[in-house]
Amino acid sequence: MQKIRISDLGNFVGQEVTLQGWLFNKRSSGKIKFIILRDGSGYLQCVYFKGNLTEEVFDKADKIGQESSIEVTGKVKAEPRAPGGFELDATGLTVISDAHDYPITPKDHGIEFLLDNRHLWLRSSKQVAIMKIRHRIVKAIRDFFDERGFTLMDPPILTPSACEGTSTLFETPYFDLGNAYLTQSGQLYAEAGAMALGKVYTFGPTFRAEKSKTRRHLTEFWMVEPEVAFNDLNDNMDLAEEFLEYIVQTILTERADELKVLERDITKLQNVKRPFPRVHYDEAVEILKKNGIDFKWGDDITGADETIVSAQYDRPIMVHHYPAEIKAFYMKRDPNAPKYALAVDVLAPEGYGEIIGGSQREDNLDFLLERIKEHNLPQSAFEWYLDLRRFGSVPHSGFGLGLERTVSWICGLDHLREAIPFPRMIYRNTPWGGWGGGGGGVGGGP
Ligand code: NSS
Q1: Is the C-beta atom of 343 inside 6 A of ligand 1?
Q2: For the chain, which has fewer Cβ within 10 Å, the N-terminal or C-terminal residue?
Q3: What's residue 2's pLDDT?
Q4: How far is the CA of 86 from the centre of ligand 1 (A)?
């Protein structure tokens, strides 16, 4: 007997097969029982006719509870009306582990309850769809850069200094060397990589001890950061828009079924095509003022303001030339108008806001030294970074795309917490770990 997964059923029509998975749902009507099996690759309706089975199998089908692990055997039938297009004319049923009182039922549950049960919630069809889209986005990201001659370079996670300002660092003692910090961004290391390899990208977890309780902030999130030697701000924007178009169009074709499960309005995503509008910061300020916002030049464009500016357009926009004062130390100033940084933020439509932050980097040694002093950063910790300007400095640019914000936008979620398997937020670090609750250590879980 062949053991297969639900996603393979198309190759086995008319044949007898065995599948293993979990009981997603069941119902019965007289002489027929229906079991919906899920195995992570899909869903399959298994039809048990009383006449075709022993009494024992028929009874068993009645007794097992939701999420029991089971093995089913039967003949594969094409059934265009069934989800996935197939059905199983079932004859065998083995219970691997019987489950009862599974806490997540088809009724509505509150979000805190679901987060407490995140380890089980992940089995729900919507969560499975999100995880599959997340995985495909990760692959699209890697394919995009791999196909364009970039080298993946993994930066360290334990770092001796800040990249994105000192206020949001997670600190940890580091042997006799003082404190280390969890990385906020791989960028500074990516810059070293770009000088070695020309085009690199980093892709990994990053950490921000942000005290924001918004739906857009996690304390641990994944970021992909390309960095390219000899690219200026315009090249950087060209790369960002090509990249986003590629990701969204890939998901539209490769994960159409999952977007349907999520009931995502895909017309908005179909618009994600180059060129994206390039909006100067000053223009964004004008838009805000026209919309009755009391916005002062020099303020950062955040949250609600982003939504107002984005709403003027039908696709992502790239806001560039922010005031240098509100941006990171490493950003190059516009040589023709030094009050602006050569920065760009890409704002997603539909109120999702900033998903990419990037810039052309300061490549002049003296200017960079000035910036480090202005930002009160310890020069000694940045000597290696300054070396990149001492030895063959070139114009270079890059950006960071937040993976969870991208997943959240493409899936149409209302909070980042569903875009990552086990979210970490300022008020929640479980499951797993429970170091906030009962003195337990980190660890455990299945
Ligand atoms: O702070 S960023 O705007 N930029 C950087 O970290 C640069 N060093 C990137 C670079 O040029 N290589 O963060 C980049 C993106 C931002 O647009 C968001 O999409 C995401 O990272 N981001 C976050 N996602 C989730 N939660 C939090 N707290 C968060 N902070 C940034």
Answers
A1: no
A2: C
A3: 67
A4: 43
